[in-house]
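seq/struct pair 1
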Amino acid sequence: MKVSEWMTKDVISITKDRSIQECVNLMKRHSIRHLPVVEDGKLVGLVTEGDLRQIFLASLIEDLTIKDVMISDPITVSPDTEIEDAAKVIFYNKIGGLPVVDEEDRLLGIITVADILAAFIEIMGVLKATSRIDVILGDDPEAFEKVSSLIRDRGGEIVSVGISGHRIRRKRVYYFRLKKCNVRHLAKVLERAGYQVVSSVA
C-alpha cells in the first residue's frame, strides 16, 4: 500500500513569518501535532508540538516567528512510498509524522503514526470479526505452506499472517488471523500434524 492511500490530504499549514502564538492557536484549534511550513505551496519546514513546548515561554518575551523554531530540513516521503517504508522512517527517526511532497517539494499531504497504525489495523483485519491461531512452525522450510493448506482444507479462510519479533524456545510464532470459524477444531488438526499451537482465539 502506498502512502498516498493513507495520508491526510487536507493539510493545515502555516507560513514562516507567523508568530509562535498563532502556531499554537492553530494546532489547538485543529487538534494537530505537526504543522508544515509552506511558501508558495512548497514545503520549507515543519513545526511540531514538542518544538513549541520547548520555546513557548521564551516566545512570550522574545519576538520569535515560525522561521526561528521550525525544522528547516524535515524528513519527507513521496506519495508513492510504501506504507511499510514510511513506518520504518518514523520508527528509526523517533518522529511522529512525515510531510508528503512531490519531486518539486510541493506539499501534498502528511502521514502520521496514527495514519500508519490505521493502515496496519486494516491490513491485519484486527477490527473485523475474526478468529486467530498462533503456531510454532518448526524448522521445516515448507511448514508455512503445509499449515496454510491444513487450515484451508478444513474450511479456514486466512485474512492475514503475522510473525512475532520475539522467539519462544528459539522458534518464531506465526499468527494466523482467520475469518470466524471453529478455531479449536483447527488447533487439534494442526497439533495432530505435529505443530505446536501456542494459543487460539475464537
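seq/struct pair 2
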Amino acid sequence: MINNDVLRRVRYALDLNDVTMLEIFSLGDLTLTRDELLSYLKKDDQEGFVALTNQYMDDFLTGLIAYKRGKLEEKPEQDKKPAVSLTNNSILKKLRIALNFKEDDMLNTLKLADFNISKGELSAFFRQKGHKNYRECGDQIIRNFLQGVTLHYRKPVE
C-alpha cells in the first residue's frame, strides 16, 4: 500500500490535526515543516504531492507508538535493533503496538470492516520472515484494518 495512503488513513481514523502529526513525526526523530506534512497528505493526482519514503513512514509509526504509549526508555546495555525494511507486515505490527491491540482487538477491528480472518491467518502476519507459517500481508488487509480502526475510533453518535 502507498505510504501516503496509510498516513492519510491513520490521520483520519485517529482524528489527528497538523500540530499532532508534526509532534508524532518529531517523536520518531524526524522534524518536518507543516508544508512538508501537507505535501505528504495530498493524493497522488494533486499538485504538490510528494511520495512518503519508507524511512519517513517508519519514523511516523515509531513516533505514533511513542505518542500513544510513551517513549521507550532504552537501557545502556541494550543493543539497538537493526532497521528492517518497511513492509505491510511491519506497518500492521507497528499499528498494533501503537493502538495497544491484542489478537481479539485486531480480529474485531477487521470484522467492523466486514473482513473476517481466522486467528491463525492473523498470527501468520506477525511471524518472522523465515518461519514456515509466515504470510505476506496484502494491501487489502491493511486497507480493511484501517477502515475498521476508523469505524472503531470515529463511531457515529447514536
